[in-house]
Write a structure and sequence with these properties.
Layout (H helix, E strand, L loop, with lengths): L11 H5 L3 E3 L2 H8 L26 E4 L5 E3 H10 L45 E5 L6 E5 L5
Antiparallel strand pairs: 1-2, 2-3, 4-5
C-alpha cells in the first residue's frame, strides 16, 4: 500500500530510530553466484538510491515498509527530501516523544485522598441588581458579575 509520500523531511531523531544492519560476506557471494563459481555476471542486491551494489561490511538502514538502502544514502534522502521510502513512498513515522513526568508538589499521604488540580469553575453568570419595587438585591441569570 502506498503512503502519502511524507511531504516533509524527517528529523535526525526519526532517522536514527530506524534499524540498521551490516551486509555479510555470505549475502554478497550468494547473490552474485560466486559461491559455486557459475555466474560472475549476475548482479547482487543494490541500493535503489545510488544504484550501487551492497558490499560486505556496509551498513544498511531498513525502513518500516521493509525496503533497505545504504544508510548514508537513505539518511540523506529522509533528512533533505521527504520522510518516505524512495521505492514505495510509505511514510516513515515520527518518533513519539515521551511526556516528562511531573512530581507532585507535596508527597502523597496514605489514607488521604489525592488532590486533583482542576481548573476553576466558570462564573455562574448571576449579578446582584436592585429592583425598583423592592430595594433588596435580586439575582438575575445571564448577567456577568463584576
Amino acid at each position: 500500500m502506498l503512503g502519502d509520500g511524507g511531504k516533509w523531511p524527517a528529523t535526525r531523531e526519526d532517522v536514527d530510530a530506524l534499524p540498521t544492519r551490516t551486509v555479510s560476506v555470505s549475502e554478497t557471494e550468494l547473490c552474485r553466484g560466486c559461491a559455486d563459481g557459475t555466474d560472475d555476471d549476475e548482479q547482487g542486491p543494490q541500493c535503489y538510491i545510488c544504484l550501487g551494489e551492497y558490499e560486505a561490511g556496509e551498513t544498511l538502514r531498513t525502513l518500516p515498509c521493509g525496503h533497505a538502502f545504504h544508510a548514508p544514502c537513505v539518511d540523506k534522502w529522509l533528512l533533505e527530501q521527504r520522510r518516505a521510502c524512495p521505492t514505495c513512498r510509505a511514510t516513515v513515522p515520527a518518533v513519539k516523544k515521551a511526556t516528562p513526568c511531573v512530581a507532585p508538589s507535596r508527597p502523597f499521604v496514605v489514607g488521604e485522598a489525592p488532590r486533583l488540580a482542576l481548573p476553576a469553575p466558570p462564573p455562574r453568570g448571576f449579578a446582584a441588581v436592585p429592583s425598583e419595587a423592592d430595594p433588596r438585591v435580586l439575582l438575575l441569570p445571564g448577567v456577568a458579575s463584576h
